[in-house]
Amino acid sequence: MQLSRRIRPRRVAALASVTALVLAVSTSAGSGHLRAPASAAGAGPITAARGSAFGPCMISGGHTVQMSEGVPTSTGYSRSTGTVHALTLMVDFPDAPGPGDALDRYREFFPQTAKWFRTASYGRLDYRPEAPIRHWLRMPKPFKAYGIERGAPFDPGYRDLVQDIVGAADPKVDFRDYDFLNVLITPNAGPSALDTVLSVTFAGNTEAPVADGVPVANASFVYSRQDDGSGSYDRTGYRVLPHENGHVFGLPDLYTQDGGGAVGHWDIMSEDWGANNDLLGWHKWKLGWLDASQVACAATPGTASYTLTPLERAGGPKLIFVPLGPRTGYAVEVRTRAGNDEAVCRPGVLIYRVDADVDTGMGPVTVYDSQRDSGGCTRSPNVQAELSDAPFGVGEVFKDTKRGVRIEVAGVGSGAGAGAGARAGAGADGEYRVVVERR
């Protein structure tokens, strides 16, 4: 049975109310603090003005959307470029004592998580996990006494747990020195990940418990080992933490109650189990990992030709966005088997719709399948298969006749022939030429 059918979808515990999304956690490069002045920027340092050529592509969500795909990212989340300091604590309980050395739990996630972010960000995010307490941090109450459920932001159980974590860690930790908090719960606390997933992130929450005078506003909690049964846990099990930390940086969940059927394995915010995968180009722009020169805003009626280089390779043009209005549009990028995308079985041009007005876990992104009802091409276990062959190849066309949009993969880029990781028809470096027509 596919793991995605057995696991209850994980969700970010964002904010109890829209007004809670105001605390800025951004800091200057090289220094970590859980809180910064309320005027600080959000997660991604996107500076393009709405009145510029990028204005039509800077979609935004309505006031009722708690965690939007809009750009720039709202304030309240951790900075996603430069050096960030992640306070990492290993926590156990009297009724669930941590097995073995607490640093073994730490090593399940590091240095793999830091390496994943370094690769995904092209080196723009210097993720520094810090474990000042190198033993299990014992809580004063049994795990069951906290009544942990994945409910409202910092519900009473979580509030009590965070206060106990702060009390136990305070003699050795100054919470003002860190950008966000990772809590690695002993894996024998709570149910198996095959039954339910307790791992959760509280992001941008001004009503969070306070430590050393600052709200613990961005915190990721990781529980049982999410083993997909393929025998690859030692290599891929860490990826639940990059997913949860994605929320710390302001990214929403892309799966829905039906699982990963909207985006498949094309973004770690959709599926974080199974083989390694990257983030969508839209998310990389949102996080400040792509420059304005790497993004094309196709807002003008007419026909325009673009060359795209693989998302997994640093440098070069990476993303085309075709706005359909102030809240939505189509994104176009090239995905190949490289970097964090180790499982791509049909490289090509990925086309998807981004809806800034759709909330986390409700399907804010939809990938369009060039090979509908094919069953997909992946053989990786526990990966949503149908969308694995979604990318469009040379000569294939995406049409939205109602909106007057036509996107054609017209040919190769500047190279000739087929390079490593690229489908036949792509340029020597995996480049593709894409033509966008709009009425």
From TrEMBL:
Keywords: Hydrolase, Metalloprotease, Protease, Signal. The keyword Signal applies. One of its GO terms (molecular function) is metallopeptidase activity. Residues 1-31 form the signal peptide. The keyword Protease applies. It comes from the Bacteria. SUPFAM superfamilies: Metalloproteases ('zincins'), catalytic domain (SSF55486). This is M6 family metalloprotease domain-containing protein. It comes from Streptomyces gilvifuscus. The lineage of its organism: Bacteria, Bacillati, Actinomycetota, Actinomycetes, Kitasatosporales.
